[in-house]
Amino acid sequence: MQEVFVFLGQNRWKYGWQAVVFWAKRSLDPGIPQCYDAEVQGGNLRVYYLEDTPDTSTSIALGLVRLVVEPTSNIENRVRQLETSVRALPVQQQRHAIELVEQALVYKFPDRPWRELEAMFGLTEWKQTRFYQEVEAEGIQKGLQQGIQQGIQQKTIEIARSCKQQGLDIETIMAITKLSREEIEAL
Question: Is residue 6 assigned to a domain?
Answer without folding.
Answer: no
